[in-house]
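Annotators were shown the component list below and the corresponding predicted structure, then asked to write short factual statements about the assembly.
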Amino acid sequence: MTARPTSRRGLFRAAGLGAVAGLVPAAARAAEPALRGTGDLGLVVERATGSLLLVETTGRSVLARIEGLGDMSHASLVFDRTERFAFVFGRDGGLTKVDLLTASIVKRVVQGGNAIGGAISDDGRLVAVSNYTPGGVRVFDAETLEMVADVPALDRRGAPSKTVGLVDLPFRTFAWSLLDGDEIWIGDFADPRAPKLTKHPDIGRLPYDGVATSDGRWYVAGLFGEDALTRLDLWTAGAKPEKVLTGYGKGEQPLPVYKMPHMEGWGAAGDLLLIPAVGRHEVLAVDRDTFREVGRIPVHGQPVFCVARPDGRQVWVNYAHPKNDTVEVIDVPSLKVVHRFVPGPAVLHLEFTPRGHEVWISVRDRDRIDVHETRTFAKIAEIAAKSPSGIFFTPRAHRLGV
Amino acid sequence: MTARPTSRRGLFRAAGLGAVAGLVPAAARAAEPALRGTGDLGLVVERATGSLLLVETTGRSVLARIEGLGDMSHASLVFDRTERFAFVFGRDGGLTKVDLLTASIVKRVVQGGNAIGGAISDDGRLVAVSNYTPGGVRVFDAETLEMVADVPALDRRGAPSKTVGLVDLPFRTFAWSLLDGDEIWIGDFADPRAPKLTKHPDIGRLPYDGVATSDGRWYVAGLFGEDALTRLDLWTAGAKPEKVLTGYGKGEQPLPVYKMPHMEGWGAAGDLLLIPAVGRHEVLAVDRDTFREVGRIPVHGQPVFCVARPDGRQVWVNYAHPKNDTVEVIDVPSLKVVHRFVPGPAVLHLEFTPRGHEVWISVRDRDRIDVHETRTFAKIAEIAAKSPSGIFFTPRAHRLGV
Ligand code: DHE
Ligand code: DHE
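Structure shown to annotators:
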């Protein structure tokens, strides 16, 4: 076996296989893009420099750096269904459309003052952004970035709200939560000029994030103001939000919360969801159907991301400051931590290759991405990146509820 | 909303949006390929003419026809992790590597006498083919199509066997069944020149197909010679195959079997698997964990494919001759048929867009693919194809157990 597909199919032939890539050669950005598939591409957010690193996961190399994205200190992004374009949601309210094949910015608009995330519709036509400032949700034409809908988040008392936990649902529909308004809204944008909104008030205090389960059945909001989560059944007409896991921290001494746990990445561990507990050194194992707690796993620190390997057999966990130099691996069948290692200071995010054989981990304060094999846990590559945070691979384009 | 991404991003600018595409313009095949993402591409097997139709699902159009693939009367294919290349397994033992971006054949080898299917490893380096003639499994370098392993399927008595139900498992591993040998084999090809084989004998009479559940936990073989299925736990070291659903047709008058049901497409309907019953006008609903029957759904004919929409909320079913002009849709929460329609004679296969908003259906004897919206069931496009059978979209590249 001497097959090294990337060396022949590489977009810019820029960086070596699996080696520390170092700076992207200046020539790389100017090169003529070669024909290539887009199924193994990814983007890494470089949070301090307003840039993205374009990577490929077959040969584990850097293809290019894309600059000029504004404030990327907490950026996230989604891919369109062709896997050619990414839509980047910047902290400064910037919405940037990036072309992965030419490694360039197609278009950039500043659509709000402070954005926290977004989603793309299943048909690839609509991109929705949730805003802290001015609040509400704005929907854009994916082709042109023209705004096609502006939905302020005025709660039942008429007060404006920050929005969080924006996810895509089937059929040009999005769901999101009103952080200050304590509501969950579902917006059907089949006709984006006349969206149909369904509003669920009084869902619990201060929803700070939300996810949909990978089957699109449940929308789940994390609550900052209560010791519970709220879930909404999206398959049953007329269903009301219900609180679940109420009092999951009750009776114990809560620790100061260093960082809210993130909800992305749950949902695929067989019958279980593995959920970071708020303000505790614990991961909760929850039955996917009933949302009853079936176990607690003591862990190294306050978990930030609990990401299930795509087959659900392992969950990898990173932690909040001051324990954020460490990663642990939970074996799902036994609900035990089976591996712990210390990549270095400020491990911010992790992303699996689509069938789960490898995982990429951003180590911000070492300016590095580490790639590990998930069977042996061995580190197999290091990739230089400037203050890397979020890592996003193109197969996300095809997932529900991201 | 006037965004029509395909019209600008189309590979060959060959066919109109959503219209009956008609014949592919001759110019199309010669045109210079434009840059495009590969996440929304697909291939349709044209079973009578040894050809493949290259399609895209955003604008629902034909991009090109690729000819010269040999006997495609029962062909299937897999995509590499870049989503640029497909590996096509022909009935004549041909293994053909196709480039979707140039719409051309990269390489073709005749690797056996009669092949029934294949799979690709998670790292994209190895393609495995299961053969009726000469039997056994052969493994090829995905880059060069050079054979790197030849594993004859000699059963415990030393007799050669046809192989079926070949699937990929994590970490360069494949599983398959010995049709004549009544065995399941797991092959770890981490070092393809020295594969590690685990053999499970006496799994039940005449396994005719196999699948892995989407989490990669269970390998399930359908039995032709017994009224049961066999499943193997791939997560538990030393696990033995166990028979499940034993006697699921017992006590009733079996009908003549017109066609063996296919096992591809199961596995994502929440907690349930919806399985075509052999020789009956029924679909079985089975608990995903225990494999106990939890319900039976009376249907129009003998089911061939029961394909779950990616979110698992619906299962679409086609039928064996003489009832193969009809498709039914089962609503999973209620286990009821909620829609039936008649596309035309010889409905052979169906494939969902990755987030499930649309479904493509091949209607062989009308030389046509129909595209339906899955929310309204409405037909939204027709695409001309010559005797179409299997439909394969590139996001399959990222699924486990295909
Ligand atoms: C609501 C929300 C989302 C979901 C967006 C969506 O739906 O698309 C999100 C996504 C994210 C995502 C995208 C996750 C994904 O897998 O899609 C990442 C990588 C991320 C890395 C961080 N987040 Fe995030 N994050 C918050 C909120 C959120 N972060 C906060 O309120 C918080 C605690 C404080 C803040 O500074 O905003 C916060 C701090 C962090 C970090 O400190 C992290 C670890 C590193 C960093 O660089 O900011 N957040
Ligand atoms: C074992 C097997 C596989 C799995 C391959 C793999 O693991 O990759 C398979 C896949 C397939 C796939 C790929 C399914 C997928 O979703 O991956 C398709 C479309 C398919 C359409 C048909 N098959 Fe298939 N098929 C058989 C066996 C199989 N078919 C038969 O034994 C049978 C009954 C008789 C025969 O002629 O071989 C048979 C007839 C048919 C048809 O009549 C179908 C409906 C139409 C046709 O054109 O042949 N078979």
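Statements collected:
1. Chain B has two helices and 31 strands.
2. The mean pLDDT of chain B is 88.
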